[in-house]
Amino acid sequence: MSPRARAAAGSLVFLLVAPGVVAGVLPYLLTGWDRDGDVSTVAAVSGWLLVAAGLAVLLPAFARFVVEGIGTPAPVAPTERLVVGGLYRFVRNPMYLAVAALIVGQALLLGRPALLLYAAAFGAAVVAFVRGYEEPALARRYGAEYDESRRAVPGWWPRLR
Fold first, then answer.
1. 70 φ, ψ (degrees, to nearest 5)
2. Percent of the chain topping pLDDT 70
3. Distance between CA atoms of 112 and 138, rounded to whole angstroms?
4. pLDDT per residue as tens digits for the range 59-104
5. Positions in the chain whose pLDDT score sits under 70
6. Are 29 and 104 in contact (CB under 8 A)?
């Protein structure tokens, strides 16, 4: 099996396990995906837009790890090269932002404030993970290239230029 094929298989498994559980299984366990009363049209449309945007960001970001990085987003099978193309030119953490959008979108679609609390907890956990583990690990693995990326690209608020 070629390195890219291994990266694609590993990335698909990680997509199902990590975002699949965090943005799919856990919201389902919290809500049964049952709507809580009437949801306004504005909330429903906003929710669908966030879910669509989350998927539109998440899936290409995963693909970029295979195509550009020849690896996976999973810490146990990192990329050979630092991923800096695509959406990573605008923000360093598009996957985490996409998963948060998926959760908030579901909260709006279902009228479930509990999912907003869950999204906030997810955000806090992700920031702690990124600061405490991911950024130091990337700095060790990619050195000056990662330092340059950190200087040039914001972590959480996309740069639009």
1. 50, 60
2. 99
3. 36
4. 999 999 999 999 999 999 999 999 999 999 999 999 999 999 999 9
5. none
6. no
**For residues 80 and 45, what is the distance between their CA atoms, to the nearest angstrom?**
40
How many Å apart are CA 95 and CA 80, to the nearest integer?
Answer: 19
**Residue 131 near residue 161, CB atoms below 8 Å:** no
DSSP letter assigned to residue 44: H
Contact status, residue 39 vs residue 57, Cβ threshold 8 Å: no
- Cα–Cα distance for residue pair 9/4, rounded to 1 Å: 9
Hey, what amino acid is at 159?
R
Distance of alpha carbon 5 from the chain centroid: 22
C-beta atoms surrounding 4 within 10 Å = 12
Residue 156 host element (H or E): none
DSSP string for residues in 15-41: HHHHHHIIIIIHHHHHHTT---S---H
| 106 backbone dihedrals φ, ψ, rounded to 5° | -65, -40
Contact 105, 54 (CB under 8 A): yes
Neighbour count for residue 76 (Cβ, 10 Å): 7
Collapsing DSSP to helix, strand or coil, 133 comes out as helix
Report how far apart, in Å, the C-alpha atoms of 10 and of each of 39, 51, 68, 86, 154 are. 38, 24, 15, 20, 27
